[in-house]
Amino acid sequence: MRIVFATNNKNKLAEIREMLDGSGIEVLSLGDIGCHDDIPETADTLEGNALQKARYIHDKYKMSCFADDTGLEVDALGGAPGVYSARYAGGEGHDSEANMAKLLAGLDGKSDRRARFRTVVALITDEEEGREELFEGIVTGEIIKEKRGAGGFGYDPVFRPDGYDKTFAELGHEVKNKISHRALAVAKLVARLLENRR
C-alpha cells in the first residue's frame, strides 16, 4: 500500500516512516508525488484544515492520503492561539520567537497557565471509497514564564507537559516523539492503517 502524507516536513515524515517500518505501507511526501502547490489551510478548526489538505491531495492525485494540523490551546486565552498557532504573531511565515513573545505577553500576570497541544490527523483511503476519518492526540501541560531548552520547534521551549519538570524543548527528540500530541494521533492512524492491511 502507498499513501501520501500531505507534508514536506522531513521530521514528520521520518517519524511516520519509522512507525510503519516493515508494515508494507510506503509513505510518500508531497515532493515524492510532484506536488508543489500551496495547499490552502483556510478552515477555522484543526479538523477543518487537516481535512482540507487531505481532500485537496485525494481529489487532485486520486491517492490514499492523510494530513495533520496542530494547535496550542491556552485556557486563560480562551483557547488561543489554536488554529492560528503557526502565525499567531501575524506576518509572513512561522516566526516562533515572535509567537512565543506574544503568548508570554498575553499571559503576563495570569496565574492560570494551563494549556494543551492538540493534533488532528485526517485520513482518506481509496480502498474504502474515499472514506474520511479523524484521529486526535492531546497533551496537557502549562506555559512556563520563560523559554527553556534548545531542542524542538514552535512553542516547545515554553510548554511543560504534565508529569515532567522539563519543557518539550528540554526533553529531547526521542522522549518528545513518544509522548507528544502528534505521536498520539499518529499512533491511532498507524493502528488504523495496519488494521486495513489485515
Describe this entry's structure for a reader.
- This protein has helices at 10-19, 46-61, 96-106, 168-171, 173-179, 181-197; strands spanning 2-5, 26-28, 65-74, 81-82, 114-125, 131-143, 159-161.
- It has six helices and seven strands.
- Strands 1, 2, 3, 4, 5, 6 and 7 form a seven-stranded mixed sheet that branches.
- It is globular and about 50 Å long.
- Strand 1 (2-5), helix 1 and strand 2 (26-28) form a beta-alpha-beta unit.
- Helix 5 (173-179) packs across helix 6.
- The protein has 198 residues and is an alpha/beta fold.
- The longest helix has 17 residues, at 181-197.
The span between the termini is: 12 Å
Question: What share of residues are in beta strands?
Answer: 15-25%
Percent in helix? 25-40%
Counting helices, strands and paired strands, the structural category is: alpha/beta
Count of extended strands: 7
Average pLDDT across residues? 91
Tally of alpha and pi helices: 6
Shape: globular
| Low-pLDDT segments, ≥5 res | none
Main sheet attributes: strand count, strand direction, barrel closure: 7 strands, mixed
| Rg (CA only) | 17 Å
- Helix and strand element order: EHEHEEHEEEHHH
Question: Notable features of this structure?
Answer:
single chain; 198 residues; alpha/beta; 7-stranded mixed beta sheet; 6 helices
Quick take:
This protein has six helices and seven strands, in the order βαβαββαβββααα. It has helices at residues 10-19, 46-61, 96-106, 168-171, 173-179, 181-197; strands at 2-5, 26-28, 65-74, 81-82, 114-125, 131-143, 159-161. It is globular and about 50 Å long.
